[in-house]
Amino acid sequence: MNANASESERTRIPVTYRDEWQDGFGARGWKLDAALQDTAVIASTAYTGEKVPTSVLVHDILDHLLCGFGFSGHRNEAMAVIQLASRTGADTETSFRPMVEEVLHGRILGEPIRSFLPETLKAHLPDARLSDEETMSQLSRRLGRERLRTLLLAHFQAIGEEGTRSAKARWRSFGLDYARRTAIGLCLQELLVRADETALAHHWEHARAFFRVGNRECELVIKSPEAHEWRLPVRDLQQASASRLEP
Question: Percentage of the chain surpassing pLDDT 70?
Fold first, then answer.
């Protein structure tokens, strides 16, 4: 996706559907074509869970791709979590706690552990080279497990907030209104629900499609195995709520 492309092309986001992905996870659902080579990305259906009104695929589109963040790695996910929270009201700590536990066990994704840790924590480490597990064990002994956990939670929050400025600039570069992310997300979710229901009803094994994301309307076009197209307006929150209550 080229930020210098025309309005219609720069918001065109290709996706692929499979009824079972042969990626080690075996999930049914949709993936962004931009993430097909990322082995950490799991396919997503239209399922939203109880507390967030949009699916993982919409999160990947709005909070990763359009913000310019990678799809995997703790730093990228921290920045994307802040974006998710700011458009949906999701609790950041709920998302950060599992990542903190991974870091506590020396599992850092996307970069060396010393480049991930803040200076305040690295100051407690010796100059000697340590493995990732040894690094975190050393910090646990020096600071205590609970204090270290609290400091890591704060670090994830800080990392996430640092990404907001670049995310806003990225959205502007695509001609998209950052302030309309909540409404755009709900529109994309409604489109995804229609496509996912169609894939199940028609027993598709594989499908290729693309979203077009705009400030006033969004589209989802199925190219294969058969042609379908849905286009919906991006409604403000009051309109979206009323629409969901309609019989």
Answer: 91
Compute the mean pLDDT over every residue in the chain, rounded to the nearest whole number.
92
The answer on pLDDT for 160 being more than 60 is yes
Range 45-52 contact pairs with CB under 8 angstroms and sequence separation of 24 or more: 45/196, 46/189, 46/192, 46/193, 46/195, 46/196, 46/197, 48/189, 51/90, 51/91, 52/84, 52/88, 52/90
Q: Is the pLDDT of residue 215 over 80?
A: yes
d(CA 165, CA 226): 41
Q: Helix crossing, 132-143 with 92-104: angle to 10°?
A: 110
Q: What's residue 237's pLDDT?
A: 67
Query: What residues contact 241, with CB distance under 8 A and at least 6 apart?
Result: none
- Report cis status (omega within 30 of 0) of the bond before 53: no
- For residue 156, is pLDDT > 90? yes
Largest CA distance in the chain: 66
Is 83 exposed, middle or buried (CB count within 10 Å of its CB: 0-12, 13-18, 19+)? buried
Do 236 and 183 contact (CB within 8 A), yes or no?
yes
Q: Is-contact 146 197, C-beta < 8 A?
A: no
Q: How far apart are CA 170 and CA 17, in angstroms?
A: 27
3-state secondary structure of 239: helix
- ∠ CA 194-8-189, rounded to 5°: 25
